Amino acid sequence: MCEEKNDQIKEKKKKLTFNRKKMIKWTAIILSTMVVIFIVYFYFSLPDVSNLKNQNPKLTALMQIRIDEAELAGKKLRIRQKWVRFKKIPKLLRQTIRITEDASFYKHEGVDYEELRESIKKNWDKGKFARGGSTITQQLAKNLYLSTEKSLFRKIREYFIAKRLESTLSKNRIYHLYLNVIELGRGVFGVEAASWYYFNKSVSDLSLEEMVRLTSVIPKPLTRIPTVNSRWVKWKSKWILGKLKKYKYIDAQQYEDTIGAFILKKKKLE
To answer: Considering the entire predicted model, what is its pTM?
Structure first.
């Protein structure tokens, strides 16, 4: 009698184990299928960037966001943007923006994984999105196609769009697009439009000081003005000049002369 009960208990345990394994198996199949469907959907929802090889976008996602924000505030925003050929943008300005925003631009394939690790670590420590770690390619992806929302999903889309841009376009074309659509003020996009707006001259005629001032506001284009000697502009400009000197894009005399120009300037330039 005791043996019969033991056999029944063993049989029940076998059935429970079998059912549990079966349930785990089907759960794994369902989850795997859902993941595959999501990946396929996600991939095909990414924008086609091939037209950017020989076409310049007339309106970016970021431009539209700024227009919508202005409308919500009951205002009308004028978009200032002028396309300029890559070679017409001074080499020194291209170097200045690159070493400030993404020094490894010509070495990575859209994502700087070392910078990304540092950003993840800092964001984890802070408990929020405190550091972006975006490359020039990722910034272009965001400006062209995405929102300004700081979320994990947006960063994932930004990553894959950046990889698509890198696999489709040349490095110089990516940088050319970036320099023409980057936000440099409220309604001001691209280095040519910004040069005319702030300095009343073409980007090809900018001085070293003006190049550095323009570059200094890239992280804070809506709250900082290149022609105002705010603490941010002076601090960031000095940091940029130090980088230019370090990489030997300018010599010691150019560094000293430009630093001196910042000291001599009045609180606000005319």
So the answer is: 0.81
